[in-house]
Fold each of these.
Amino acid sequence: MKARPAIAAAVALMATAACSVAFGWAEGDVTYDGDLMDCPACHAEDFPVFTTRSGPHGGYTTTTQKCQVCHTVHVAPADGILLLPKSTVLGTCRHCHDGTGGYGVYGAIAARGLTVGADHSIETTNLVPGGDAATGGSAITTFTGANGYLSCDDCHSPHASSVVATFSGERIRFHASDLTWLPYWSTDKLLKQRPTGATTPTAVYGSDWCLGCHKGRGSGGMVNNHPVDSTLVTATPFYYDRVAIVTTDTSLETTYGTLGLLNAIPGSLPSAIWHNRGFVMPYPRTPAQSGHYPICQQCHEDSRIVGEPGAVAPAAVYRYGDGNTSGDPGTDNPLFQCFPHETQNYRMLVEATVTASTDDLCLNCHPLSQLP
């Protein structure tokens, strides 16, 4: 589906309609499928402002009714020992995050007739690329899903237990009351500090979190990889909410900020505050970048056109247009916000084709003038 309701109409509907809510992985659009749950059951704490949104995944008290949103006490499937409404964790998660009309965790790209270049394959694989710390090769891991395959709760804690610190992601949120944007809205995305396969907990979302499963992709092992900033190489690595990013589209200077945004102004439009400047590293390296490598997410994130350090907009490092729509070619950059579930690009690279990597990604940090 391409068309979406206007945000104002969606908010008005939110206040009155019985609904199962799925947030689009692009901006803040909402859709309703008339399913079993109503809005207050999941999102009563969201009104009037989406600042600490947890839905049924946290905030349990003696007076809330959140448990029954995901658990069915007497009529669970025969193999549903967790009293889930579906026979698998994946099925239960998709009760809300179902991709209806292409708005869910998975399905947003294919729903628009485009090719998915890479994804985290849920319930279909137990192979972890780079999962072998010694060789850097793939490794077989026993996950929590059916047949020991990867499932949603290998990365996410459905009860928000022992999760990473909140961080300011790229997905746009807004006040339900007056529709002003919330550029500082942050979330833990229910990411476990210790995803399945991780040997040590990780408090923040950055390279170390990715290396919990992809152990052989770090810089401290027995094989050579592109260096990444992690506790394997420094006591104070960068992470998603703290990287050195260029200050303007034409600048070669950097300051500290969140990977997806800089100097956000509450209430201003996303086009004025979101950008892609965190995905480049000027050469020579700036004082703020000195002694640091990129974090995994600077190369692996939603597909986008990044540009070159110091380029003049619209040559490259701008963010998408008005922020009111999603998946609109020519205005949205990135086009979709599905990472790390699925992306358009090969191996979930920021810049690549559907089937291969290209020099465009490397030249974000290694300009031709620097090459020997």
Amino acid sequence: MWIYEKRLQFPVKITKTCPKTAQLIISQYGGPDGELSASMRYLAQRYTMPVKEAAGLLTDIGTEELAHMEIICAMVYQLTKDMSIEDAKAAGFDAYYIDHTSALWPQAAAGLPFSAVEFQSKGDAITDLTEDLAAEQKARTVYDNLLRMITDPEVREPLKFLRAREIVHFQRFGEALERTKEKLDPSNFYYFNPEFDKTMMRSFGR
């Protein structure tokens, strides 16, 4: 289904080897609030999203998150491709090196491996869109933290771009949530709706 352009959405040109920085940034690949989780979350949720416009948005943003994952991977690769054993040891990157050398593998900055338990797909439009809003804010916070820690402008510029996109995604999901609430019916519950709640309780025999 995808036709892709064979270039990064934002250029990555890092000239200084720094496995310590790579160890921090890799969290946005395989960490709990990273781009891999985001892409899988949105591309799974779209199937049961009853509001067509919201389903289309999930497809669009889920696809863009794949592009963002590619940017993060390019950054980690460029930061580690020329590292020596001494570089890895000095940066505390030696444990990662033992398992993966300088290959890309999804994990958090703390070393925890990627897990699908870090995101949800509930099939409830309000629940899923609310989680998506929170996911974008959490990812934005991670980028804020990275920008506080990292001073190299070659690394900061892609991070600033990615942070800005999290804000845009948050805004788009907010708009989708409002449109979905306007179209509430038994196919796209659940929001605070007293009459709808009464109907549901009656259907459960309460």
